[in-house]
Amino acid sequence: MALIVTPIVIVGLGAFSPSADVWRQLWEGPLPEMLWTTVALLVLVGGGTIVLGTALAWLTTAFDFPGRRWFTWALMLPLAMPAYILGFVFLALFDFAGPVQTAMRSIFGTNVWFPDVTSVGGVAIVMSLSLYPYVYILARAAMREQAPATYEAARMLGDSRRAALLRVVLPMARPSLAAGSALVMMETLTDFATVQYFNVQTVSVGIYQVWRGMFDRETAVELAALVLLIALIVIGVERLLRGPARFHQRGAPRDIERVALFGWRKALAIGACWAVLGAAILVPIAQLLYWLLTSPAVVTDLSRGLEYLSNSLGLAVAAAIAAMFFALLAAGGARFSGRTLVRRAAHLVTVGYAVPGPVVAIGVLVMIGWVTSGAGSNPAGLVVASLTGLVYAYVVRFMALAYGSVDASLEKITPATVDAAHTLGANPSRVMRQVYFPMAGAGAAAGAVLVAIDVLKELPIVLLVRPFGFTTASVWVWELASESRWAAAAIPALLIVLTAMVPIAFYLRRERLSRGSAVALETRLTTAGRS
Fold first, then answer.
1. How far, CA to CA in Å, does 173 sit from each of 164, 421, 458?
2. Residue-range domain boundaries for the chain
3. pLDDT given at position 292
4. Rounded to the nearest 10 degrees, how much is the dihedral formed by the CA atoms of 291, 297, 302, 303?
5. DSSP-assigned letters across all residues of 411-471
6. From CA 449, how far away is CA 455, in angstroms rounded?
7. What is each CA distance from 18 to 9, 21, 230, 493, in whole angstroms?
8. What contacts 24+ positions apart, CB below 8 Å, involve 368-376?
9. Do 108 and 32 meet the contact criterion of CB atoms below 8 Å apart?
10. Which of 114, 280, 281, 454 is spaced 20 to 30 Å from 122 by Cα?
11. Sign of CA dihedral 392, 394, 399, 402
12. Is the pTM of this model over 0.85?
């Protein structure tokens, strides 16, 4: 557990030993603008995802229209589309030289007005489309698990559907909406690739520029401490929005009685779902495929793309195995001991998921510096240390996914099962091997898949921690997109999206997920709020 929290503690200590000269230079330079754009982006993306995710959750839960069952899970697929891929496709389509503005100028003249897409507003649109599934999944789960009976009681007492939604459903879903929006804000705070496409400077961008451009460790650590402080404020606001109230629903989860839509309402509902899916994943994939098929030079990069994808998959597998190993130790040990203090201490391993990626990366880089300071300049040693540190950073960041999945599976083991094993003469280690670990297998597999997906898509940590010359698929996408080589970025972008979509589709293609998979997915989305 100490290993998991150490990088975060290192950065946190930076907040208690600030350098006046460093902060004076930052405040006289770009820091005020970075703070303003960071806060504006958090508000816009947080608000946008709440509106979009909640509206889609209510639409697919309370109404019936053709394709509703398919849309229910299809609207989760944008989880496979990282914002840094959606962002450069958005720019390629809507920037001044893109096909949309070019067509408008040819039709309406050269002076036709078009909003500036390289702005905070443009980034907010892209990130809202990429991150809304977090709020959508939690909002829909809350509407199914907590609201139906109370909603029906409100309807029987004379409330209209709209009044029941505003007075019953949304207040009861408030904890889930707050948790989802907090996670969205954490992901927004972590990002520094997408915002750079749009020439938007945030505090996370400053960390990367200071570390990679100036190699100034002290300033980078103090900027990371500022990001950590913003993250703690987000968590505090999320707790405040949850409020003291707790809501419970008896019986199995079920949907609110749906109302069939006809005429223009049916067309509007179907159109809204298709519009979101089209903007978030269908149009970007179509554009990537178009570049792939119409740019012959791109095909020559296929071998390089597969090489970089293999690097990504290697990191994903290593991080997933390591995370599951530590999760089994932490969750199994906490449950085996039976002590409240041990269980609470074990829960500390989830704290990394509530912390932005650059904060974890800077803490790990400081630790790598400590380890390699006495090793001289041996290149092989530095590479091994960097790759090990990269896997370690992933474990710290995504440990919550593995721990939550394993802990949820262990919850199913009844005390009678353990007592029976003890009665038959099994010692504690045998109970752990033959009872706890086998019964946690399904949850462990689900958690490993979730960790691997996030590692495959992750960009900030690998950009900061990777050894020189080591490239993954996500890094290659970022490098090509930063140079406006949109078509060249199509291969690695498609490889990332399609690879990430396979396990997501496997877990989400059915309306009624198995309980173990549902717990694993919901754990992924609620950890930030609980940590």
1. 13, 41, 29
2. 21-240+261-294, 295-531
3. 84
4. -170
5. TTS-HHHHHHHHHTT--HHHHIIIIIHHHTHHHHHHHHHHHHHHHHH--HHHHHHSPTT--
6. 10
7. 15, 9, 16, 40
8. 368/465, 369/217
9. no
10. 454
11. negative
12. no
Q: Are 151 and 256 in contact (CB under 8 A)?
A: yes
What is the C-alpha to C-alpha distance for residues 62 and 72, in angstroms, rounded to an integer? 12
**Res 511: pLDDT:** 40
Measured between alpha carbons, how far is 296 from 125 in angstroms, rounded to an integer? Answer: 32
The pLDDT value given to residue 344: 66
Q: Is 376 left (phi over 0), alpha (psi -120 to 50) or beta?
A: left
Tokens 């380890």 sit at which residue?
371
Q: How many C-alpha atoms does 487 have within 13 Å on its Cβ side?
A: 12
Cβ neighbours of residue 265 closer than 8 Å, sequence gap 6 or more = none
Given the structure tokens 């889609």, which residue do they identify?
56
Low-confidence ranges of the chain (pLDDT < 50): 251-252, 510-531
Matching CATH topology for 21-240+261-294 and 295-531? yes
Q: Are 148 and 256 in contact (CB under 8 A)?
A: yes
Burial class (CB in 10 A: 0-12, 13-18, 19+), 215: exposed
The pair of structure tokens assigned to 27 is 């405040």
- Confidence at residue 505, expressed as pLDDT on a 0 to 100 scale: 66
Long-range pairs, 191-195, Cβ under 8 A, ≥24: 191/83, 191/84, 191/127, 191/460, 192/358, 192/460, 193/83, 193/84, 193/87, 193/459, 193/460, 193/463, 193/478, 193/481, 194/83, 194/84, 194/86, 194/87, 194/123, 194/126, 194/127, 195/37, 195/41, 195/123
Question: What's the pLDDT at 288?
Answer: 92
Q: How many H helices and E strands in the chain? A: 28, 2
What region does 165 belong to: left with phi over 0, alpha with psi -120 to 50, or beta?
Answer: alpha
Tokens of 170: 């949304």
Q: Is the dihedral of CA 172, 176, 179, 182 positive or negative?
A: negative
With DSSP H G I counted as helix, E B as strand and the rest as coil, what are the percentages for the chain, rounded to 5?
80, 0, 20
* Contact indicator for 220, 203 with CB cutoff of 8 Å: no
Continuous segment of H or E residues that includes residue 259:
strand 259-260
Which is nearest to 187 in space by CA: 397, 499, 34, 5? Answer: 397
Structure confidence at residue 284 (pLDDT) = 94
How does pLDDT run across 5-54, given as a tens digit for each residue? 888 888 887 766 666 777 777 777 778 888 899 999 999 999 999 999 99
Domain at 295-531, CATH from 3.65.10.10, 3.40.50.720, 1.10.3720.10, 1.10.3290.10: 1.10.3720.10
CA atoms within 13 A on the CB side of 445: 9
Of residues 197, 250, 239, 18, the one with CA closest to residue 90: 197
21-240+261-294 domain in CATH 1.10.3720.10?
Answer: yes
